[in-house]
Amino acid sequence: MSEREMETTDDDRGMDQLHVAGVTLTGVARGGVETCLMAKELGVMFDIGMCPPGAQRYGTVLASHAHADHLGGVHYLASLRSMFGQKPLKLHVPVEAAEPLQRIFAAWSELEGYQVPVEIFGHAPGATVTIRRDVQATCFRTVHRVPSLAWVVERVSRRLKPEFQGREGAELKRLRQAGVEITDEHRAPELCVTGDTQIEFLLSDESAMARRARVLVHEVTSWEAGDAGAIARTRRWGHTHIDELIAAAERFEGEALVLVHRSMRHSRKAAEAVVARMPPSLREKVHLLGN
Ligand SMILES: [Zn+2]
Ligand SMILES: [Zn+2]
Questions:
Q1: Residue 100 lies in a domain
Q2: Nearest bound ligand to CA 220?
Q3: pLDDT tens digits for range 184-206
Q4: CB 96: neighbour CB atoms within 10 A?
Q5: In which domain, by residue range, is 42 found?
Q6: Is the pTM for the entire model greater than 0.90?
Q7: Cα 130 to Cα 190: distance, rounded to the nearest angstrom
């Protein structure tokens, strides 16, 4: 974050917040209404359904898909950042959404009478984005009604190779100066945010990295437990039902499973009652974001 960006009066007070396994998630994720999640330790924001308090500080959006509740606020955010003299917003989207978004920005620039600065990057599944020197994000195809991506964010660091551990600093310096590669790259998936998807994403071979993420933020839109008709309806809309998540959850290897995108039909209290009935091994990993 540049000094200039810190000059804004924007803050994230009033937003839902959850601190789990070293990651702070701030924002909102309500099914069909608005999704925008900020991960301040990683310097990245996921989706921009509207433009909630705190969003203006983020220069990079990793977007899951182009439904309005996930991307409707993008023009407003780009325009707001421009007004405050911040760097142009970097918007990473599924490759299929890039060109239509360029057209939207062109039309809006025409209406506003100036070019709204934005950098739009379209990505095919498997693409990697460097957020900063120690943070990279990789996208994976999810299963939704429009082209969609999950994003896995990794911390990247360099660590001393085992054969050099315990050596004196002066010796390591000499080796380095002699051109010896004394470190290895170390990558750890910290956070995966799935966006909107059916449960198949979590079960696929391609999503192994998502299942290893320390924190997995998965959508569970429907919460009426034990209702086969509800599962079928949820799937028709390209979403996940809580019973499907419970059946798949044992494959998750990380520390925290954050369930978001609950439909407004279900209260937090109702969702908490479902969580309370989960097997203890799953219950202790599960967190809910928002009311
Ligand atoms: Zn949605
Ligand atoms: Zn959607």
A1: yes
A2: 1
A3: 999 999 999 999 999 999 999 98
A4: 14
A5: 16-288
A6: yes
A7: 15
